[in-house]
Specification:
Blueprint: H1 3-18, H2 26-30, H3 48-56, E1 58-66, E2 71-76, E3 81-86, E4 93-99, H4 112-118, E5 128-130, E6 138-145, E7 158-161, H5 169-176, H6 184-193, H7 196-199, H8 207-214, E8 222-230, E9 237-240, E10 249-254, E11 258-264, E12 284-291, H9 307-315, H10 320-323
Antiparallel strand pairs: 1-12, 2-11, 3-10, 3-12, 4-8, 4-11, 5-6, 6-10, 7-8, 8-9
Helix pairs in contact: 6-8
Zinc ion (ZN) is lined by residues 94, 166-167, 183-184, 265, 267, 274.
């Protein structure tokens, strides 16, 4: 049976069961051709030659081992590179990134869903990781992916996704009715709460309180090495065993100073389950590199979020290109002293 015929039978079945009204032109509406949502060709270009030069002149300066079912933080100065490596075997990692100069109330951090829209559902070499509002700028660029060969599979799956979130104890409690304490969400919360950067803004000696205070900073992740997709028929999120093997890595260039947190998911290769202690898990390795190819590299301009300054840029738009990262004025159509129109 063709896909169209299957849908007709399904629509008829649903209409009978739920008293749905299926319009006579339902199939014609489905056949409307989609358009790309964003004009991504207008995004800042990726200077491939520069990143290749940076890679050819890199030297390892630091590393952090993330034990199985745990999380760890790491620092990457702007203009440095870092790799996430499957150190001993197939292992999925959940990655959070923050601007290490700005971990506070208006923390600049990785924005997975906007990255999904601007780049793709699954990331690889040349893709960029974007930060949230009001910043919206590339905070890291993927410079190498040993799994770039995978591209996609017959199930609709791909590697390194930004379509899932992270395994967490809340969903686990709803579905299984039990507490599990080593989900990636908890691992990331605990890792952040014990980092020096977090300790510099939050003063508490109570580890439980520190983890609770760190939890709101944890955000949707880049699922490193995870193989995921949506089932074409049910549209449900699926995972399958990662194609990653020992020594596979994903490598990034830090466009801004980064504080990272990485969890070695309790799902291991995420081929069968997550949120339990039964699955084989391996450590992940984070390696940090400096590069001597930064002569012509200019980091992004400073982020200005002052509404007063942005108002000046509104009057003199040319200044925006000099100082402002985000092109948006942040007025939301409002004018000082005037009430909204409703
Ligand atoms: Zn996980």
């Amino acid at each position: 049976m063709t896909a169209v015929a299957t849908r007709r039978v399904l629509s008829h079945h649903l209409a009978r069961r739920r008293s749905l009204v299926v319009p006579v032109d339902a199939e014609a509406r489905r056949q409307v051709v989609p358009v790309t949502c964003y004009e991504v060709d207008k995004l800042p270009p990726v200077d491939v030659a520069f990143y290749e030069r940076a890679r050819s002149m890199m030297r390892k300066i630091d590393q952090v081992v993330v034990p199985p079912r745990e999380g760890r933080c790491f620092q990457v100065p702007a203009g440095h590179l870092f790799r996430i490596v499957c150190a001993e075997g197939p292992q999925v990692g959940d990655l959070n990134l923050w601007c290490s100069d700005d971990l506070g109330e208006r923390s600049e951090k990785f924005y997975a869903s906007k990255t999904r829209q601007l780049q793709a559902t699954h990331l690889s070499t040349g893709d960029r990781l974007w930060s949230g509002f009001p910043y919206l700028r590339p905070i890291a660029t993927i410079t190498h992916d040993t799994l770039a060969w995978y591209r996609g599979d017959d199930f609709g799956g791909g590697v390194h996704d930004v379509i899932g979130s992270r395994c967490d104890p809340y969903t686990n409690a709803v579905i299984r009715g039990e507490d599990y304490h080593h989900c990636c969400h908890s691992n990331l919360s605990v890792a952040l709460s014990t980092s020096r950067t977090f300790a510099s803004i939050v003063a508490t000696d109570d580890p439980v309180q520190a983890a609770r205070l760190a939890e709101p900073y944890v955000h949707d992740v880049l699922n490193v090495f995870m193989c995921t997709g949506f089932d074409r028929n049910t549209r449900k999120y699926f995972m399958k065993s990662t194609p990653a093997r020992r020594a596979d890595f994903l490598e990034f260039f830090a466009e801004i100073p980064l504080l990272g947190a990485l969890s070695a998911c309790p799902g291991g290769d995420c081929g069968a389950s997550h949120s339990d202690d039964a699955t084989q898990c391996y450590p992940l390795l984070v390696e940090v590199f400096e590069t001597s190819a930064l002569n012509e590299w200019r980091g992004p301009p400073p982020v200005l979020t002052s509404v007063a300054l942005l108002a000046i840029f509104n009057i003199i738009p040319k200044l925006r290109g000099v100082f402002q990262v985000s092109a948006y004025s942040r007025t939301h159509g409002l004018r000082p002293g005037r009430l909204p129109p409703h």
